[in-house]
Amino acid sequence: MDHAVRTKRVYDPKAAGDGTRILVARLWARGLTKAEVALDLWLKDVAPSTELRRWFAHRPDRWGDFSRRYILELQSSPAVGRLRSLARAGSVTLLYAARDRDRNEAAVLAAFLNDEPSKAGH
Questions:
Q1: Which pTM was predicted?
Q2: Domain map of the chain by residue range?
Q3: 55-63, long-range: CB within 8 Å, 24+ apart, which pairs?
């Protein structure tokens, strides 16, 4: 990857160094308008499947299994290629709505794209 992919909570303000801001969730963040988020792309297809998201339910005890299952989904996702292309072209920030800044879909996805499997919950 030419540029490291970063993550940021969607509720945090936009910063100059964010580059391309991509929401990587299937559901829109509660209480925000699209203008407030200032995103460049909403890539629902790269988010965890509805079944996996519901099973995980942001339970810390399921984090390792969630990460492994999500990586399996990512390995067959055509949307990952689009993200890799964007990251080669410039800075990318993956936006997420979860309260947990360390255990969320964007953290797994960023580690996957940055080729850092140890940070993806393994």
A1: 0.90
A2: 5-120
A3: 58/98, 58/99, 58/100, 58/103, 58/104, 60/100, 60/103, 63/103, 63/121
